[in-house]
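Quick start: read one record
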Amino acid sequence: MPDPAALSGIIMIGYQQYSPDRLNEVKKSGLPLVFVDTDTLKLGYCSVVADCG
């Protein structure tokens, strides 16, 4: 992961492909985090899911 001081936030696409260690690393950064294309609200993460229906 890049130096957190150089970032404003993190956008992660999907959820299940990330290992628990990777998710902990991102969470520890303290940066704003949003997941795209998966509902992670029940896990305590912000998310954006498109409804193309």
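The chain has a mean pLDDT of 89.
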